[in-house]
Design a protein that fits this description.
The protein has about 325 residues and is α+β, with helices and mostly antiparallel strands. It has 11 helices and 9 strands. It is globular and about 65 Å long.
Length: about 325
């Protein structure tokens, strides 16, 4: 009889993750001058990055594990420095090994803005968040950063048709539907390019902001930042994945932010910029969540799709030129 060892029951991915964890422990202990460290999981996300908390005599630290084959830690280090230089609250990097993909970071705690931001607290929290966004757009250096250009925006829009419609809903577009989709994409890209181009975090929402009483919001998950449309991070905050705001409230915040940035455009023009940028982002998100399900087996993201789909169906009918695309997305074979 052939005996099967426990190790043989683990998958290659699990064995690789275990070896990475052993390497991370060894690295952290070495840079801290300790015989050993205990790593406690903090969170994971849709990427290959993992985060762990470790305790030292001087307090807690966060270890970031960013496998260099899949993640670009150099970008994280660069953007972190830009945010700190502009006076924003990003985690200080105490130690970093770009070759191995390990970093020891300042610990902002576990409490996300997702947990504290609701209809009762919005009046207390949103002014500070809008001020943060204004400072990030106005003061953070974006020279030399990748541009949110037509090609990048289109690649993100393609996620919706490829992964949501074709793969998840098995919907094949006819010739008239392809034409209306291409027209929508053209207008969304044109609108994005016409806006002032500034530093863009690219995933600015309540799960990437850490709350500590008496402190400014702690900004995380910024390694994919680009130079792009001024409305992008703002609409990321407004059309959130966990809380939906009334349209009247959205438009109040739009006007408040326009005045804060001293944008030289009419209120209606700014509302259109925000709506169209929100469409681009929310189409991308529906596509990404579908890809996470279909390709990566992360089915938990499917339950988030209906909220973002509702965002699309709320904004599209506000613009007559998008009537055909609104009709397409309302079809039973398309809607979630």
């Amino acid at each position: 009889m052939r005996l099967i060892s426990p190790a043989s029951k683990t998958s290659p991915a699990e064995r690789l993750a275990s070896r990475r964890l052993d390497a991370a422990r060894s690295w952290a202990a070495g840079v801290l001058g300790l015989p050993s460290v205990a790593l406690n999981p903090v969170s994971g996300d849709a990427s290959f990055r993992r985060y762990f908390r470790l305790l030292t005599q001087n307090g807690s630290l966060i270890l970031m594990d960013a496998p260099p084959q899949q993640e670009n830690m150099a970008s994280f280090v660069d953007i972190d420095a830009r945010l700190l230089q502009s006076g924003l609250r990003a985690p200080r990097i105490l130690h970093c090994d770009l070759q191995q993909g390990f970093g020891l970071l300042e610990d902002f705690g576990d409490r996300l803005y997702r947990e504290v931001l609701n209809t009762d607290t919005a009046g207390a929290f949103f002014p500070g968040l809008l001020e943060l966004l204004a400072r990030m757009a106005s003061n953070t250096d974006c020279s030399g950063m990748p541009r949110y250009d037509d090609a990048r925006l289109q690649a993100e829009l393609d996620l919706f048709t490829e992964w949501y419609l074709a793969r998840h809903r098995q919907k094949t577009l006819g010739v008239p539907e392809v034409a209306c989709w291409q027209s929508l994409c053209h207008e969304l890209k044109r609108s994005a390019a016409a806006q002032p181009q500034v530093f863009v975090h690219r995933d600015f929402h309540s799960c990437n902001l850490l709350y500590q009483e008496g402190q400014a919001a702690g900004i995380i998950d910024f390694q994919d930042a680009v130079q792009g449309p001024v409305s992008y991070d703002f609409v990321s905050l407004l059309w959130d994945r966990y809380i939906s705001w009334p349209r009247s409230q959205l438009e109040q915040w739009m006007e408040t932010f326009r005045l804060m940035l001293e944008l030289e455009m009419e209120p209606a023009a700014w509302v259109r910029y925000c709506d169209l940028m929100g469409l681009q982002r929310n189409l991308k998100i529906v596509g990404i969540f579908s890809r996470l399900h279909c390709r990566d087996g992360k089915a938990g993201y499917l339950e988030m799709i209906p909220r973002f789909y509702r965002y699309l169906l709320d904004v599209l009918p506000r613009y007559p030129e998008f009537t055909d695309c609104h009709a397409l997305l309302e079809q039973p074979e398309c809607a979630p």
